[in-house]
Design a protein that fits this description.
Elements (H helix, E strand, L loop, with lengths): L10 E3 H8 L3 H9 L7 E2 L5 E4 H12 L4 H23 L2
Antiparallel strand pairs: 1-3, 2-3
Helix pairs in contact: 3-4
């Protein structure tokens, strides 16, 4: 029997993310624009959120003192993983 690892994640709303990062809302969205934070997931017409695993990974990289170039590479990797997961879900 093959064991499947399921990674459970929650979505964090903007207010929670900016509280965790310590950034202002405008700074948070500037980081997204600059490729230093993942793009949000649309939850509804006027609401977005971020997967908690992505927020955790970016914060851990910041705490570890990673350079902006390394953070950008991490953000690309996280977004690619998110898209790959969405593609797999769509093929079922």
């Amino acid at each position: 029997m093959v064991a499947t690892v399921v990674r459970r994640t929650s979505l964090e709303r903007c207010k929670t993310v900016i509280e965790r990062t310590g950034d202002a809302r405008s700074t948070h969205y500037k980081k997204i624009q600059d490729g230093l934070f993942t793009k949000p997931v649309r939850l509804g017409l006027r609401s977005v959120g971020w997967p908690s695993v992505e927020v955790d990974a970016i914060l851990a990289a910041r705490i570890a003192g990673k350079a902006d170039t390394e953070i950008r590479a991490l953000v690309l990797k996280l977004e690619e993983a998110r898209n790959a997961t969405a593609d797999q879900e769509g093929t079922r």
